[in-house]
């Protein structure tokens, strides 16, 4: 229950990403600054936390031992996740971005065969390659229907090109985030805590962000004070608080792919959070009835997906143990 609760609270703070990214776009801010400043601002906060916990040296030792893997998977998990997400904010409201982002639940399930999960047997623990949770995916179709209903209203208002600029980057990011997160959990092997891993990934993704910063400075203007402050808020709420809570939740269930999928599914709650936030902060109008129904389907799909994932995991582990004994 604790991992699920952490995921729910993380979803609340993640919602600030969609709200403020939309606000920065509406005010004319560049998506590159919105993305890069968030991770740049995260560094001092995380450094202070990890330093006072006395865990900086072990982190740097781990990063020094595997610099290539840290650079690769941090860039995937942070850079190739957040840059497309902020780009998409220029082509749809925050609640729509948050809703479409829930495709990551399906993306995460499709990535399961690329990882191993630990199964306890009478002779000890063994690593078994994960299998796609097809029952969970069947429940995920409800999420897809909900996303489609939300996007229908969007398609009626904008050109096909703008819709694609909204959907395709989110689809790309939906694979990058769980892939980078899970790969880094493998690389760390339980030797680092959540704060260390988030700081390490933030530092290792800096080359990617600095390249974007140099490009933006060479081709456009520096960020405004308003965008800088909003990026700072996103860094604290979403980059530090939400990311740490979410990574804590995934760390608790990292060896159980069914429960891991359930924790990732809690991020669907960012959709209603983002909608309420846009109404309050940006005075956004209430979406059309079809979009509201689609939003409810997304959340319902998340709940059903979590339930089926947990039931399927119990059945799968029992079956695997039986096969191993034979």
Automatic annotation (TrEMBL):
Keywords: Membrane, Transmembrane, Transmembrane helix. The keyword Transmembrane helix applies. This is Multidrug resistance efflux transporter family protein. InterPro entries: EmrE. The chain crosses the membrane at residues 31-50, 70-89, 95-116, 136-152, 158-177, 198-217, 229-249, 261-282, 288-308. The keyword Transmembrane helix applies. Pfam families: EmrE.
């Amino acid at each position: 229950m604790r991992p699920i609760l952490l995921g729910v609270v993380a979803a609340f703070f993640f919602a600030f990403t969609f709200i403020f990214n939309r606000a920065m776009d509406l005010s004319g801010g560049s998506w590159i600054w919105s993305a890069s400043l968030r991770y740049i601002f995260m560094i001092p906060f995380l450094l202070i936390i990890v330093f006072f916990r006395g865990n900086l040296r072990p982190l740097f030792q781990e990063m020094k031992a595997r610099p290539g893997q840290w650079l690769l998977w941090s860039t995937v998990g942070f850079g190739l996740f957040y840059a497309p997400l902020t780009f998409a904010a220029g082509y749809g409201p925050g609640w729509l971005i948050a809703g479409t982002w829930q495709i990551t639940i399906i993306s995460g399930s499709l990535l399961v065969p690329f990882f191993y999960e630990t199964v306890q047997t009478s002779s000890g623990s063994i690593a078994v390659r994960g299998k796609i949770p097809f029952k969970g995916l069947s429940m995920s179709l409800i999420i897809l229907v909900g996303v489609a209903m939300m996007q229908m209203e969007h398609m009626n208002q904008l050109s096909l090109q703008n819709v694609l600029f909204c959907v395709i980057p989110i689809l790309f990011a939906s694979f990058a985030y769980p892939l980078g997160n899970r790969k880094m959990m493998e690389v760390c092997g339980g030797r680092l805590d959540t704060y260390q891993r988030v700081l390490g990934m933030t530092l290792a993704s800096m080359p990617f962000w600095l390249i974007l910063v140099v490009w933006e400075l060479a081709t456009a203007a520096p960020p405004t004070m308003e965008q800088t402050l909003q990026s700072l808020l996103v860094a604290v709420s979403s980059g530090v608080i939400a990311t740490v809570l979410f990574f804590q939740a995934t760390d608790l269930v990292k060896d159980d792919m069914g429960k891991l999928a359930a924790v990732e599914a809690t991020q669907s709650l960012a959709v209603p959070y983002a909608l309420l936030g846009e109404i309050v902060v940006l005075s956004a109008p209430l979406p059309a009835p079809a979009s509201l129904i689609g939003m409810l389907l997304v959340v319902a799909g998340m709940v059903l997906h979590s339930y089926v994932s947990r039931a399927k995991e119990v059945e799968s582990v029992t079956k695997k143990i039986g096969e191993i004994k034979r």
